[in-house]
Amino acid sequence: MIKLENISFDHCIKCTVCTIYCPVAQATHLFPGPKQSGPDAERLRIKNPELVDASLKYCTNCKRCEIACPSDVKIAEIIQNAKWKYVKVHWFRPRDFFMSRTDLVGGLATIFSGLTNFIINLKVMKVLMHLFLNIPYSRKFPAYQRGTFTGLYKKKFMQSQKVYEKRAVFYHGCFVNYNNHSLGEDLIKVMNALGYGVDLVDEKCCGVPLIANGYIEKAKKNAQYNIDSLGKTGDAVIVSTSSSCSFALMHEYPSFLELDNSSYIDRLDYITKFIYDEFTAGNIPQMKAVGIRAAYHSPCHLERMGGVIYTLGVLKMVPGLDLVVLNSECCGIAGTYGFKKENYEISQGVGQNLFRLIEKAEPEFVVTDCETCTMQIEMNTKYKVLHPVTLIAMALEEKNKGKK
Amino acid sequence: MIYDCVIIGGGLAGLTCGIRCAEEGLRTVVISGGMNSLHFSSGSIDLAGFTENGSVVKKPFEHIKNNAAKKKDHPYTKVGIPAIRKSLDYFKEKVSDEGITLNHNSDFNHFHVTAIGAVKPTYLSQESVFSSRGKDIIKSGAKIAILNFKGFRDYYPEQTAANLKEHPLFKNSELMLGDISLPYYLHTEKNLHEFRSTDIARIFETERYLPRIADEIKRAAGDADAVSLPAFIGINNYREIRGKLEAMTGKFIYEIPTLPPSILGLRIDHAVKNSFFKHGGEYIAGKKIESSVIKKGIVESIITGSRGTSSEIKAKYYVLASGSFFSGGLQSGVSSISEPVFDLKVKGDSKRSKWYSWNFFDKKSHPFLSYGVETDSSFNPSTQDGKTVKNLFCAGSVLAGYNPVKEGCGGGVAISTGYKCAERIIREIKK
Amino acid sequence: MNRIETDVIIIGGGATGAGTARDLSMRGVRCVLIEKNDIASGTTGRNHGLLHSGARYAVKDHESAHECMRENKTLRKIAWHCIEDTGGLFVTLPEDDPGYHRLLLEGCRYAGIPAKEISIRKALQLEPNLNPGILSAMTVPDGTIDPFRLTASNMLDAKERGAIILTHTRVSAILKEGSKVSGVSCITKNGDAIEVMAPVIINAAGVWGQEVCAMAEIKLPMFPSKGSMLIIDYRINGVVVNRCRPPADGDIIVPGDTVSLIGTTSKEIPYDKIDDYTIDDDEIDILLSDGEKLIPNVKNTRALRAYCGVRPLVAVSGEAEGRNISRGIVLIDHKNRDGLDGFITISGGKLMTYRLMAEKTADLACKKLGVKKKCKTHKVPLPGSESRFSSGRTVKRFSGIPDSVVGSTFYRHGQRLRNIMTGEKKNYRLICECEMVTEGEIEYAIKKLDVKDLVDLRRRTRIGMGPCQGELCAYRGAGLFHEYGAATPEGSVELLHDFLEERWKGIRPVLWGDGLRESEFTYWIYQGLFGLSHVNNKKKKKG
Ligand SMILES: Cc1cc2nc3c(=O)[nH]c(=O)nc-3n(C[C@H](O)[C@H](O)[C@H](O)COP(=O)(O)OP(=O)(O)OC[C@H]3O[C@@H](n4cnc5c(N)ncnc54)[C@H](O)[C@@H]3O)c2cc1C
Ligand SMILES: Cc1cc2nc3c(=O)[nH]c(=O)nc-3n(C[C@H](O)[C@H](O)[C@H](O)COP(=O)(O)OP(=O)(O)OC[C@H]3O[C@@H](n4cnc5c(N)ncnc54)[C@H](O)[C@@H]3O)c2cc1C
Ligand code: SF4
Ligand code: SF4
Known about the structure:
The structure holds three protein chains of three kinds. Chain A has four domains: 4-86, Orthogonal Bundle (Fumarate Reductase Iron-sulfur Protein, Chain B, domain 2), CATH 1.10.1060; 94-133, no CATH class; 149-280, Glutathione S-transferase Yfyf (Class Pi), Chain A, domain 2; 292-395, Rossmann fold. Chain A has helices at residues 17-21, 23-27, 34-47, 64-68, 75-86, 94-100, 102-111, 113-120, 123-133, 149-156, 158-161, 173-179, 181-193, 208-212, 216-231, 243-256, 271-280, 300-305, 308-316, 341-361, 371-380, 388-395, and strands spanning 166-171, 196-199, 237-240, 268-270, 292-297, 321-325, 365-368, 384-386. The N and C termini of chain A lie far apart (59 Å). Helix content of chain A is 51%, strand content 9%. In chain A, helix 12 packs across helix 13 (181-193) and helix 17 crosses helix 19 (308-316). By secondary structure, chain A is of the alpha/beta class. Chain B is an alpha/beta fold. Chain B has two domains: 2-99 and 267-430, FAD/NAD(P)-binding domain; 116-258, Rossmann fold, CATH 3.40.50.1860. Helix content of chain B is 30%, strand content 21%. Chain B contains twelve helices and 19 strands. Chain B has helices at 12-23, 60-67, 75-79, 81-97, 132-139, 157-164, 197-204, 210-221, 238-249, 263-278, 404-407, 410-430, and strands at 2-8, 28-32, 102-103, 110-113, 119-122, 125-126, 143-149, 174-180, 226-230, 252-256, 282-285, 289-295, 298-304, 311-320, 331-333, 336-338, 346-347, 372-373, 392-394. In chain B, the strands form six sheets. In chain B, strands 1, 2, 11, 12, 13, 14 and 19 form a seven-stranded mixed β-sheet that branches. In chain B, strands 8-7-9-10 form a four-stranded parallel β-sheet, sandwiched between helices. Chain B has a two-stranded antiparallel sheet with strand order 3-6. Chain C is of the alpha+beta class. Chain C folds into three domains: 2-43 and 148-221 and 327-369, FAD/NAD(P)-binding domain (3-Layer(bba) Sandwich), CATH 3.50.50.60; 84-145 and 223-312, 2-Layer Sandwich (D-Amino Acid Oxidase, Chain A, domain 2); 391-542, no CATH class. Helix content of chain C is 35%, strand content 22%. Chain C is built from 17 helices and 25 strands. The interface between A and B is large, with 37 and 37 residues. The structure holds flavin-adenine dinucleotide (2 copies) and iron/sulfur cluster (2 copies). The site of one iron/sulfur cluster (SF4) has 14 residues of chain A, from helix 1 and helix 3. One flavin-adenine dinucleotide (FAD) binds next to helix 1, strand 11 and strand 20 of chain C.
């Protein structure tokens, strides 16, 4: 029989609001929407697990439905739970396996980065991936950088960080580690300007891609590893530049994976919240005008965390930034979701509204907090995408570097 | 960081208050746990529709004025007629800036037609529901085609027609029925018959379908002068779409609200939110305020989230516009009524059997609908120990003292009390 | 005036009446079933739907226990689509007499009920939501039975075999010729009079049987006993949970389709109160607090409705003062008792012994008519239960339609699913989103299952029985009534009104928390947005 842990579906008053805001239900008719897939069907699944619908797989876990729900129903959580609780995962799915092991694959790829990038964007390889791994042909892959960010840090930054008294632990996540070292470097620059020295600790992939692909046990293992590791960092503040990693570290661990993260939770912030607090407390380094017109896209998970206002608050304080805030729309990538063949069209469909808005705004750059949103936007529009931290780093004058 | 004003609840009341505060340059944030009740409403703003014994009110302001002496605790009495008028004008202006025109019938109520063909009084409506042209068309006894989107499960035009033809207002009108269908139908996997109003609205918003829709309307409506559709002709650029459709079909187009989600309400929701952003307001969606810290009759902070992920928000002034029971502004237990964020003093019987009437459609309606937070005449509530909370104001359907359904005054109370609270805060801060 | 000639008249469309109609039709006897309201609208639709293993009677009433045991096995064969083999548990709470556990085990052994003592750990595995503080546990072969489905498919089978079913038709008088009955006169809902003539009349009117007897100038005193139950939002338990103590208030939680129900209180009421279904706040309090002791999660769960049923206890021989009350099956040949030939009363018993009751009654009726055919109802499956296959596999056959939708329909109609899941796409659209009722199912019910209004429709399909209690589907359902020609447009609005009033009766007693939020929302939609009580309808002068 079924143990009833998540009973938030019981609060649903069938108001239909969530159905308005689900980007997937808008883009495809294959997905019956959050209400039917979540609270409605949950009662039936409790009655008989055989009544589970295959269409659950279309949910991207963007959580826009949860933001909209006036009854506090954890709709997306119910759907994610149902995916692995009722849909049995017997067989080995090579594509999902590799895709969700971002640290394993990343680790290998960075060793042979040149080769990897060459191979995964090779035509033959793309056809093969399309056929065997169910990864869509037209999907561009993030480039892997040579070496890891941790390696770079040891070589280039570890020494210089010692001079700062205030300490911050940087949870860099897979993306910075394997694909985007410069964001890590920017972060160090910004933290130093605020007077913090940056430490790294042992970490594993936060688990978001594992959860999305139904590898819950593995996700739990990773999560526990991170909890142990971050828990041992005394009273240092912890920051992350990835909105999705932050979301997992803060919310998914306790509520979805049911792990106790109280050892660090009070010290961890998504980076813009941290910067916002510092800025508003008066710790504002000198910045020069950047002279950029940018369009801001708010990633779904940051919205769910209620973190968008902090990013906006920080960006508003960057001098010379002409910011257009785009209407809140989902970009459609949803982590590894958009990388799968069966989801490709839906993923693109979901993103259309956003791409249109970006084109209409005619910015020089797009700014967003999330790495997979970045990929999706760069693939579908002609714009380069910057992280808010990068923007601040751009605004920091050389002389601020030494502030202690 | 301290805000000038934090508003809990992003509904009609909270956002009206927010727009006004932000416009005055106050640092204003609206925090809303979920979407508001505009998503279900008719999209018309009721001011005062029915008297105590259920008869229709013709002149709402006059009615409010006459009632003021009898109903000291009614929010309208506390706001006062001049401020109610001002707030509605203000509201009209703000949503009009965002592309939604709201019409009224000078000082009189006008009518809107419901899905089952009832005719209800209201005060402010969108053009597709009330306009002088529409009024003339109905008066002239024109032929009206009541149409539906074929297979739409949330609307049944036969019911509209059957009950409408009994109504004196429509006694001269010739009513006919019809269906429109769309080519789009054929190209999809989903069971299109499960479309909700919002799905259809999105079809209307797709420019290239419009000519085809217009053809369908012309075919289905024949020689009728006016066409009514369940409300779904676009959300964001509805004015444009309706204009085009009227031009293409040569017919007056009327909209009837039906089962949620309500397109007419969504339009207002989008308009007030956009206006709020435009005036520089900040908005946090999907965050529920769980608790608060009150010391010596002053709110020190409010708290969102649970342990660990909780955060504190501070402001000089707070507004509670968290709606009634179904929005979560009020809570009921097996035998208690409470206000969950500040634990304010509420009006409500402790005996459950007193909360409701025996029949669902009882003439007296249900007592629980008029339960809510009790405030003094300036909308300051008090805590359980009777102490007034000076920097907290309450607005909208969280308030006690009125039954929005029975009196037909939900929108009016939300707007006028939201506005009044804003005025109070602005005055205090400017001091 | 309408006049029908037949062999047997059955008064009462509960499980007993419908079962008797089926039994007689299978023996080739013509019959007319007359029900004043809807089928299963009496006590049949107002109980917990427990498919007794017999264990609840094992200590005190061996005869009942044995009957239950036998019928339990039979129904699993002929009516499997109305039954869920959930299994049952008896658990002892710390405050209960620990000795009763032994007593019950012995009683079960004696009655031949396979009760088995299990460890507490095992019990918690079977039913993880159980109170972990229990002292002992045993399993019994309890199950659940859906009274609406059961009665509907009995009726459907009877109809398919030629019986006539008149619902919403009340018997108002019993016609006699000398010492023999000759027929009945009835009045339909619209006030039309019908006369049905037959040499044999079966009074299967349950607790209303006293009234029916009175029409024949016969005294048959009944002592009504009222029981209230509480429905909660979802299936909080998968196994029937009984409290191991002598039967008392609030001692059982039964899962039933998508919900669970807590039963029951028990109160003797005067006979003139049998149609008063008021439930007091203190009854609710008892059910909640006792339910919570068995399954602690009860207190966090939304209560959907409360309702009650009235059980007839019959004073068989003569005067009320005699108090010679039977709790078992009561079959009376009034020729022997009162000298009125052709008149039979069947009463007492249980929902799950309906078939046995029907068999005994039909035997007696056949004897009177001189029909020799034997009963076959224990062998021939009911419509929907024709041959057995699992829901899971059936579901997979309908590609493109969500498994949850196909599965829910299968639950309700068994193999008659084939008659529902056909035709154009429109038939597959969901009308009731909580219980996943499709338009096809509604069309089938309106056309095939004697549905006259939305309340009847609910009994056949579960429309409006989920958490929203009709908030979205009531309007859609009303619209379809008109679409399928079963009501005028104005009439369909009235049906909508009446349906919401009927839902309110059950919601009212449990109006708090999420239930109150839901009701406020529903009220806003139907009164605020639709103005239901403002429609210009002279006929509607209710309340
Ligand atoms: C079906 C329906 C039809 C209606 N039709 C009409 C009509 O035709 N005409 C008319 O004038 N009026 C109508 N109304 C009424 C009108 O919409 C409401 O009276 C009015 O909108 C109330 O506004 P509000 O701002 O007080 O509350 P709401 O709109 O209910 O907003 C309250 C908000 O506060 C949020 N909230 C609650 N608690 C918290 C918390 N702890 N932390 C953060 N956020 C919180 C909620 O999520 C919600 O978004 C209708 C209402 C309904 C439901
Ligand atoms: C609280 C409670 C819990 C129970 N739990 C269980 C259980 O878990 N398991 C179980 O097996 N049994 C249970 N029972 C017993 C079971 O419900 C009844 O024994 C059974 O339903 C009786 O069915 P019936 O057809 O004899 O009577 P009814 O269902 O009452 O049928 C009589 C019908 O006759 C109709 N009628 C009356 N007068 C007239 C008239 N003048 N003209 C036309 N029609 C008329 C009525 O409308 C009614 O529909 C329970 C009973 C109660 C009260
Ligand atoms: S999480 Fe996103 S995709 Fe999934 S149901 Fe909710 S809104 Fe839709
Ligand atoms: S928004 Fe929440 S309450 Fe409304 S239908 Fe969706 S889950 Fe239910």
